[in-house]
């Protein structure tokens, strides 16, 4: 049995993405219980949580890069199944074998393989399933699924952990993720590469492969550079909020475990709304004028720290849940507006064969930021205490917003150049690679001059972004 409908395939991808990410947030509501089971003091528990998070994301970074290089060489659906299988099975061992903290760190690090490698594989599939006119909304669905998965991970971790201990969720969620990955590999098929690109709608088969010269071209594209660099400061708060916020609200702010989980859930709901609304509003901004899209993203990111800084510094109790719920939702909404748009921008300024590697580099920097976040904040906690350390981390969204605003000057130009290269490849293919003309995708072709005026190059002045 095979599924040919792209929307059914998309639904399975979203479900799998949510399960992979839910595995990362199971520990948050059980942080204190986990530390007590190992006989750790509170500051040792914080350090262990930071080490686990750092290990997951540091494994995810090279995994993303390797997967990005392999996506145009192997079957993407079976590659996705393989990384999920190798990542999630060690989590199942957590419930049976863990007796020392270092064992927990080692087994949890394995899940970084799925977190990192799944990003370039999934987005490469989406780019070949949906045309540019639909990518922003489609690209928004995966982050929504990931956010929903992380929220559900906290809910499951809290509910099951309270009844049966903190270990049992690590058996249930990984098994579900592995089963869905196997189902996806068996009943779906890989879409043709480049089949949704406007410049390649002439019935030809696009079989270009990633090369070192194209990697150099990718790194010389200003929009790529800005998107990748902003990920370092931009991801620090995410790692902190996922790992520490729940326990911080209980231990330092006096909320119950259920109240803290509700605040984190409100943050996740805000994130989901922000991703969906950000994709829709970003599309409208782009259709009006392309520079408005990064302007929207950067402005939203610059505003995001304010509600979360207020939440971190409030005096809370069970009678004032309305305010922390509102602040958590507002912070999640503002911080999530750029999420789908950043990845859609990266898909649209890179050629089909380069998208997996481009997304891998973006995911790799994200992983480094998320890994350094909890680990670095654990060090800051020892020096300044939790409250000041978290304030410093959340404030790092401000430099990320500035870098996103700089893309106002680069996005349109880089998209036009990419479409021009695809048209150049198509023309060379249709003319049978005439003698003396460079082969499409070769270093000589990549260095060939392009007609930069959109109308002269045959590139529409407003190529569809999403």
UniProtKB/TrEMBL annotation:
GO terms for molecular function: transmembrane transporter activity. The chain crosses the membrane at residues 52-71, 78-99, 105-126, 138-156, 168-187, 224-245, 257-279, 291-309, 321-342. Keywords: Membrane, Signal, Transmembrane, Transmembrane helix, Transport. Its main location: membrane. Residues 1-22 form the signal peptide. It is a multi-pass membrane protein. It is found in: Membrane. GO terms for cellular component: membrane. Residues 9-419 form the Major facilitator superfamily (MFS) profile domain. Gene3D superfamilies: MFS general substrate transporter like domains. It comes from the Eukaryota. InterPro entries: MFS, MFS_dom, MFS_spinster-like, MFS_trans_sf. Belongs to the major facilitator superfamily. Spinster (TC 2.A.1.49) family. This is Major facilitator superfamily mfs_1. The lineage of its organism: Eukaryota, Viridiplantae, Chlorophyta, core chlorophytes, Chlorodendrophyceae.
């Amino acid at each position: 049995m095979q599924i040919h409908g792209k929307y059914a395939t998309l639904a399975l991808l979203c479900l799998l993405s949510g399960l992979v990410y839910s595995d990362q947030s199971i520990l948050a509501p059980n942080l204190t219980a986990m530390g007590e089971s190992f006989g750790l003091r509170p500051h040792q528990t914080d350090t262990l949580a930071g080490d686990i998070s750092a290990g997951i994301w540091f494994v995810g970074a090279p995994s993303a890069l390797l997967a990005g290089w392999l996506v145009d060489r192997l079957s993407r659906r079976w590659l996705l199944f393989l990384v999920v299988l190798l990542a999630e099975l060690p989590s199942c061992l957590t419930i049976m074998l863990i007796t020392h903290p270092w064992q927990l760190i080692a087994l949890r690090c394995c899940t970084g393989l799925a977190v990192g490698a799944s990003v370039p594989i999934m987005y490469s599939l989406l780019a070949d399933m949906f045309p540019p006119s639909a990518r922003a909304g489609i690209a928004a669905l995966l982050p929504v699924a990931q956010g929903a998965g992380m929220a559900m991970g906290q809910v499951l971790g809290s509910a099951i952990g309270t009844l049966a201990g903190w270990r049992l969720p690590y058996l249930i969620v990984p098994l579900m993720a592995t089963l869905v990955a196997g189902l996806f590999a068996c009943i779906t098929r890989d879409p043709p590469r480049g089949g949704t690109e406007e410049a390649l709608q002439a019935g030809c088969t696009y079989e270009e492969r990633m090369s070192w010269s194209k990697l150099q071209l990718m790194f010389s594209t200003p929009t790529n550079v800005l998107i990748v660099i902003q990920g370092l400061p931009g991801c620090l708060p995410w790692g902190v909020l996922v790992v520490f916020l729940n326990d911080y609200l209980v231990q330092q702010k006096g909320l119950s475990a259920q109240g803290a989980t509700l605040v984190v859930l409100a943050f996740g709901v805000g994130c989901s709304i922000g991703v969906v609304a950000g994709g829709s509003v970003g599309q409208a901004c782009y259709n009006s004028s392309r520079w408005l899209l990064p302007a929207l993203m950067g402005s939203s990111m610059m505003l995001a720290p304010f509600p979360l800084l207020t939440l971190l510094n409030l005096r809370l109790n069970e009678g004032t849940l309305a305010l922390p719920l509102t602040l958590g939702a507002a912070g999640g909404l503002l911080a999530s507006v750029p999420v789908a748009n950043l990845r859609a921008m990266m898909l649209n300024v890179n050629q089909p064969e380069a998208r997996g590697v481009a997304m891998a580099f973006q995911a790799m920097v994200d992983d480094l930021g998320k890994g350094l976040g909890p680990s670095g904040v654990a060090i800051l906690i020892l020096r300044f205490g939790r409250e000041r350390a978290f304030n410093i981390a959340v404030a790092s969204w401000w430099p990320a917003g500035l870098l996103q605003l700089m893309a106002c000057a680069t996005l349109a130009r880089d998209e036009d150049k990419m479409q021009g290269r695809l048209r150049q490849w198509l023309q060379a293919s249709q003319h049978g690679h005439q003698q003396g003309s460079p082969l499409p995708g070769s270093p000589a072709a990549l260095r060939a001059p392009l007609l930069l005026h959109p109308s002269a190059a045959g590139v529409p002045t407003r190529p569809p972004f999403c």
